[in-house]
Amino acid sequence: KAHKYKIRYGCRLFEKFYRVKHPGQEIRGTGLGLPIAKNLIELHGGTISVVSTIGHGSEFIVTLPKRVHE
């Protein structure tokens, strides 16, 4: 049975250079993608969060404020 857990801003996924470790698997990348995305989203007044189901993957939720044209 899959367990769902919710991770918000305190999550290490959004820390610079953090990479999730999986035994026996090589993890590629620098660990900068999610921190950069979080920073850009917050600069636009938005939020980012992630909901993961163990063994099935993760869903990243980005919320941005609606821009009102004058």
Question: Can you offer a commentary on this structure?
Answer:
- The chain is an alpha+beta fold.
- 16% of the residues lie in helices and 26% in strands.
- It contains 1 helix and 3 strands; from the N terminus they run βαββ.
- It has one helix spanning 33-43; strands at residues 4-7, 47-53, 57-63.
- The chain has a 3-stranded antiparallel sheet with strand order 1-2-3, with helices on one face.
- Strand 2 and strand 3 form a beta hairpin.
- The longest helix has 11 residues, at 33-43.
- Mean pLDDT is 77; it is low at 1-6.
Chart the SSEs and their pairings:
Blueprint: E1 4-7, H1 33-43, E2 47-53, E3 57-63
Antiparallel strand pairs: 1-2, 2-3
Quickly list its features.
disordered N terminus, 26% strand, 1 helix, alpha+beta, 70 residues, single chain
How much is the radius of gyration in Å?
14 Å
What's the main sheet like? 3 strands, antiparallel
Q: Count of DSSP helices?
A: 1
Q: Mean of the pLDDT scores?
A: 77
Tally of strands: 3
Our estimate of the beta-strand percent is: 25-35%
Cα end-to-end separation:
50 Å
Order of helices and strands: EHEE
Low-confidence stretches: 1-6
Give the neighbour order of strands across the main sheet. Answer: 1-2-3
Q: Kindly name the structural category.
A: alpha+beta
Helix fraction? Answer: 10-25%
Tell me the overall shape. Answer: elongated
Task: Write a short abstract of this structure.
With 70 residues, this protein is an alpha+beta fold.
